[in-house]
Write a structure and sequence with these properties.
By secondary structure, the chain is an alpha+beta fold. Among the domains are: 201 residues, 3-Layer(aba) Sandwich (Glutaredoxin); 229 residues, no CATH class; 89 residues, 3-Layer(aba) Sandwich (Glutaredoxin), CATH 3.40.30. It is built from 30 helices and 24 strands.
């Protein structure tokens, strides 16, 4: 068995490394569809015409496995996963491989975005088994749903120099083991299940220490150790944006409790990373928004997939950077991403779609998809699009265009990039102006003209596949990002877009009678209940939307959802939130997300939500649960302070006293709001005493709000700590002085 545990974990993080392989579109109309054709998920539908006899996750597949005494092959992925496409084309569309699978296994397909609970438990198994993970995730289970072997991408042959067993060879070996040592496999699967449950329980066991600003300082030091001064990345690559890290560093940099040198270091690292992202190939310079990551260590060559959650978290990070510096370049980058989201990722009723694929057809005549085809440019394509010699010269220098390719040396696979360029910024505007001997304003105008022409040409190309699922959790992140950006940049259109998305979730995916929230929508609501992250991110978005709009309905709904999340997922014994409810469907024990990865963990966000709502509703139980949630992961942070930076952000609302900023505005006067909205204050919240619905609503819970008023008819702000307030600030200048005293800005 131990040999097999190490066999063929070729590309252990399969969607972590990108290869632009060409291959036929796997859906063939003359092929009979399998059961997945009736599923809602775009990912499952991508496999609906495989010759594999796929089942969706559910009792039917496991009952068949029990009845026929077969192993279950569980294959998990998502619709914009590159290596999922590759394995689909190479193996699951192959008639011989499919015939063997159908004869010896019961095959189950799962969309990780639809069922993150299933994905989480089996990914944990594979990560503990192999030390790596990724998608596609392929796990072999007993008929009782207990895993005994797994990995990620398995090649059908040795075409890429794979030195282990191929996928068909591995299937043969696993089947032989099942035939000759079934009892042994079942026994080992039981042992693995017990060991994994014990490991999960240990993640928060005994972690009951308080967090304070010492932990924040330690986290800054830890980030400094991994920061690459030359590239502006944390580590050596591939480079992921990890926006939660950057927002944390920016907020930590303004804390008075952090010494000045350490604060400046935190700010420098965050801005250097954001600058590198903005200049590299990971940003879509023509259409706005960001790709998933870069395969190199210098932000040059992206994996071209675009995810909603990356757009949301990076919009927030660049908004924070603008508030920390006042540099309009950060605002422009955030607003470019917002325009992309509103233009290309928005449902007609206001919700936001999940992702755009990395692959697309190069032209309407193409029969094969290629990674990045929508985004990259040959020299001839660039010349044809720009036409004017001056614009061609400008773009060639500015975007580092080369006749062969501009991919960095060592990129894999170079042959697929031959002749194409990924746009990345190679020179500053001042350098361009000097080189072309023109004014800086003229250089800016030329860039706008170049990008407009490239955008127009690019829009004639076949677009990448759009995953048009509306996921509650990711929409919560988008609502939060748009509300914060709209508030900071004084753009009511962004706040209105956030409100429309919230209304979409409320009308389509929420039952107020049962307080049941649903995971996702695609043409209709799914039958999958929401998970803890759906509640956490949506609650955060609604609180941010209230602060931006002064509409108390959003705060009221956030409170209802918070109660529902506690009822369903809170661990009364040890604190913190489980990721999913305990059901017979999942054989593993409930687990708690304890890592801020591409997006912050549900626990990090939930701790902050509870602390904020405790202030709005004077709710001591919320405050206690916020503290217990932070304490539950204190041990994790002590051991690895970089692991949950968003939880450290939440701790500022628990360890430090939250700053309540009460704004009593006169009608139409937003001068005080503007001062608050453009200041980076980590542990602040805004209460609107508007002599209208917000003040009436808050006054039901907070006595001091009832008496807050605009003095002499002029907008007045009350800056309070634990409801002990400074003198009323009756002018923008007075308010700015009070706010500046709260931080080191």
């Amino acid at each position: 068995m131990s040999i097999f545990l190490r066999a063929n974990l070729f590309l252990a993080s399969s969607c972590l490394f990108v290869a632009s392989l060409t291959g036929a579109d796997p859906i063939t109309p003359d092929q009979e569809p399998n059961r997945l054709v009736n599923e809602q998920s775009p990912y499952l539908q991508q496999h609906a015409y495989n010759p594999v006899d796929w089942f969706p996750w559910g009792d039917e597949a496991f009952e068949k496995a029990k009845k026929e005494g077969k192993i279950v092959l569980l294959s998990i992925g998502y619709s914009t996963c590159h290596w999922c496409h590759v394995m689909n084309r190479e193996s699951f569309s192959d008639p011989e491989i499919a015939a063997y699978l159908n004869e010896h296994f019961v095959c189950v397909k799962v969309d990780r975005e639809e069922r993150p609970d299933v994905d989480t438990v089996y990914m944990t198994f594979v990560q503990q088994l192999t030390g790596g993970g990724g998608w596609p995730l392929n796990v072999w289970l007993t008929p009782e749903r207990k895993p005994f072997f797994g990995g990620t991408y398995f090649a059908p042959d040795n075409r890429r120099g794979n030195r282990g067993a191929t996928f068909p060879e591995l299937l043969n070996r696993i089947q032989d083991m099942w035939t000759n040592d079934r009892d042994g496999i079942i026994e080992r699967s039981e042992q693995m299940l017990l060991a994994l449950n014990e490991y999960t329980n240990q993640l928060t066991e005994g972690a009951n220490d308080d967090l304070d600003t010492i932990a924040i300082a330690a986290a800054i030091d830890a980030f400094k150790q991994s920061f690459n001064q030359r590239t502006g990345a944390f580590g050596t690559g591939p480079n992921f944006p990890s926006a939660a890290n950057l927002s944390f560093l920016l907020k930590a940099s303004v804390l008075k409790e952090i010494d000045t040198e350490k604060g400046e270091e935190a700010k420098r690292m965050a801005l250097a990373s954001l600058d590198a992202i903005a200049e590299g190939g990971i940003q879509d310079h023509v259409g706005g928004g960001f790709h998933r990551y870069t395969v190199d260590g210098e932000w040059k060559l992206p994996h071209f997939e675009k995810m909603l959650y990356d757009q949301a978290t990076l919009i927030t990070a660049y908004t924070d950077a603008w508030k920390a510096t006042g540099n309009d370049r950060y605002r422009e980058i955030a607003e470019d991403a917002i325009r992309y989201v509103l233009r290309d990722m928005r449902h007609a009723e206001g919700g936001f779609y999940s992702a755009e694929d990395a692959e697309s057809y190069e032209s309407t005549e193409s029969t094969h998809k290629r990674e990045g085809a929508f985004y990259v440019w040959s020299e001839d394509q660039l010349h044809e699009a720009l036409e004017e010699e001056a614009l061609i010269k400008f773009a060639t220098v500015y975007y580092a265009i080369q006749a062969s390719r501009n991919a960095p040396r060592g990129s894999f696979p170079l042959e697929e990039l031959e002749g194409y360029n990924t746009l990345r910024i190679n020179a500053s505007m001042d350098a361009m102006a000097n080189q072309l001997e023109i004014a800086a304003s003229d250089a800016e105008a030329m860039l706008k003209k170049v990008n407009a022409k490239l955008f127009t040409t690019r829009e004639t190309r076949p677009r990448p596949h759009l995953d048009d699922k509306v996921i509650t959790a990711w929409n919560g992140l988008a609502i939060s990002a748009l509300a914060q950006a709209g508030q900071s940049f004084n753009q009511t259109a962004y706040i209105e877009a956030a409100a429309q998305a919230a209304s979409f979730i409320e009308s389509r995916l929420y039952d107020p009678n049962t307080q049941r929230l649903t995971r996702l929508f695609r043409d209709s609501p799914s039958n999958v209940d929401a998970f803890s992250d759906d509640y956490a991110y949506l609650i955060q978005g609604l609180i941010d939307l209230y602060e931006a709009s002064a509409q108390p309905h959003w705060l009221d709904w956030a409170n209802q959802l918070q109660q529902a999340q506690i009822d369903r997922f809170y661990d009364d014994a040890a604190g913190g939130f489980f990721g999913f409810m305990a059901t017979e469907d999942i054989v593993f024990a409930q687990s708690k997300d304890s890592f801020d990865g591409a997006i912050p963990s549900a626990n990090s966000i939930s701790a902050k939500n509870l602390a904020r709502l405790a202030q709005f509703f004077d709710n001591e139980d919320y405050a206690n649960k916020a503290l217990q949630t932070v304490r539950a992961f204190a041990g994790v942070l002590t051991e690895s302070p970089m692991r949950m930076p968003a939880l450290l952000d939440a701790a500022l609302f628990v360890v430090k006293k939250p700053i309540q900023i009460v704004i009593a505005s006169s009608e139409g006067d937003r001068s005080l709001n503007s001062i608050v909205n453009t200041s980076l204050i980590p542990n602040r919240l805004i209460m609107h005493a508007d002599a209208g619905p917000s003040q009436k609503f808050l006054g039901q819970h907070l006595e001091f709000i009832r008496s807050a008023q605009a003095i002499d008819g002029n907008s007045t702000a009350y800056v309070c700590e634990d409801f002990v307030c400074q003198l009323p600030a009756r002018s923008p200048e007075a308010l700015r002085i009070q706010l500046n005293e709260l931080t080191r800005q």
